[in-house]
Amino acid sequence: MDVSIVVPLYNEEESVEALYREVRAAAEALGKSWELLLVDDGSTDRTAARLREICARDGRVRVVLFRRNYGQTAALQAGFDHAEGEVVITLDGDLQNDPNDFRLLLDTLDEGYDVVSGWRRDRKDKMLSRRVPSAVANWLIGALTGVGIHDNGCTLKAYRTDVVKRTRLYAEMHRFLTPMMSLSGSRWREVAVHHRPRRFGRSKYGMSRIWKVFLDLLTVKMLLGFTTRPAKWFALLAAPFLAGLLLAFAASAYVQLTLSPGERYPLVFPAIAILCAFAFAHLVILGVFSELVVRMGDFRPAQTALSLLQPGGISS
C-alpha cells in the first residue's frame, strides 16, 4: 500500500458522501495504491450509517467506529494504528481541506522530508472565534518549542509511516505532532494549501479550547525537556524557593539590626528561610539524582549503538 488517507469525523453526515467522492478522485489521480480510513469519533447523527454504506461499496475504504466521542487526537491515533500505507495523509472531514493538495504533499515529502504540514495561508474561518485564537496558539507553540510553524492546527498533513507509527498521542496532542517530531529529529516542511469555507454543519472548535491547548503545550514542553535534562527543570522549580530563602534571610537580618534592646525577636522570617532552604535543597538533590538516572539509562543503548557501527553492521 502506497498511501493511507485518514479522516476523523464527528457529526458530519451531510459532508460524508461529498468527502468520499473528492478523496477518491484525488487519490486515483495520484497513480498509487491507496486506502481510505474513516474514523467516526462517536457521532450522534447518521455519520456512522453513511460510513457503513460507503465501506460496503468500496473495498478500499475502511471504517473505525468509536463507541463514544473521544476527541480528534484519539481518532487520528486510531487511524495511524490501522494505516497500512508507506505514507499517511490526514485531513478534516468538513470539506474545508482540499484533497487536490495530496499531490503537493507527496511531492514535497519525496524531497527528503518526514513530515509535510499544510498551511492555510488564506483561511476561510471567522476572525475572532477561530483565526485570532489560532494565531495566538501558533505563536505560543513556536515560542515554547522553537519550531516555527505557521499553522499547527491544520489537519492536512503527510507523514512517513515509519515515523508516525512511533508516536503516541493523547489529550489534544495532535496539534503538536509536527513540533514533537521535529524535536525528535524528523525533517519537516510547511507548504501552503487551499482552504474552503464550511459548507455543512458547524465548527466543533471555539474559544473554550484555548485553555486546553495551553495546558497541553506546557505538558509537551515539560516532557520533551524533562526527559533529556531533568536537572534544568528541577532547578527552575527550585528557583522561587531560593528567592524566598534570600528574601527571608534579608528580612531576618534587617529585623535583627533594627531590633530594640529587650524587644522579643520574631521567628516568622527565620522559619520561612528554613522552609525555603529545605525545599530548595530537596529539589536540587532530586535534579541531581534524576540526571544520574537519565545518564545510566542512556549507557546501555549507547553501547548497543556503538556495536552497530562495527564492520559488517548496519546503522540507522
Layout of strands and helices, then pairs:
Elements: E1 3-9, H1 16-28, E2 34-40, H2 47-57, E3 61-65, H3 72-82, E4 87-90, H4 102-109, E5 115-119, H5 127-145, E6 157-160, H6 161-164, H7 177-183, E7 188-192, H8 209-226, H9 230-258, H10 268-308
Parallel strand pairs: 1-2, 1-4, 2-3, 5-7
Antiparallel strand pairs: 4-6, 5-6
Task: Give structural attributes.
single chain; 316 residues; alpha/beta; Spore Coat Polysaccharide Biosynthesis Protein SpsA, Chain A; 2 domains; seven-stranded mixed β-sheet; 7 strands
Please outline what is shown here.
This protein is α/β, with parallel strands linked by helices. It is built from ten helices and seven strands. The protein has two domains: 3-226, Alpha-Beta Complex (Spore Coat Polysaccharide Biosynthesis Protein SpsA, Chain A), CATH 3.90.550; 230-308.
How far apart the termini lie comes to 23 Å
What is the ordering of alpha helices and beta strands? EHEHEHEHEHEHHEHHH
The spatial strand order of the largest sheet comes to 3-2-1-4-6-5-7
Radius of gyration: 26 Å
CATH top-level class of the largest domain? Alpha Beta
| Strand residue percentage | 5-15%
DSSP summary, beta strand count: 7
Provide an overview of this structure.
It is a single chain. The protein is α/β, with parallel strands linked by helices and 316 residues long. The chain has two domains: 3-226, Alpha-Beta Complex (Spore Coat Polysaccharide Biosynthesis Protein SpsA, Chain A); 230-308. Helices cover 51% and strands 12% of the residues. The chain has ten helices and seven strands. It has helices spanning 16-28, 47-57, 72-82, 102-109, 127-145, 161-164, 177-183, 209-226, 230-258, 268-308, and strands spanning 3-9, 34-40, 61-65, 87-90, 115-119, 157-160, 188-192. It has a seven-stranded mixed beta sheet, sandwiched between helices. Helix 5 (127-145) runs parallel beside helix 8. The radius of gyration is 26 Å and the shape is elongated.
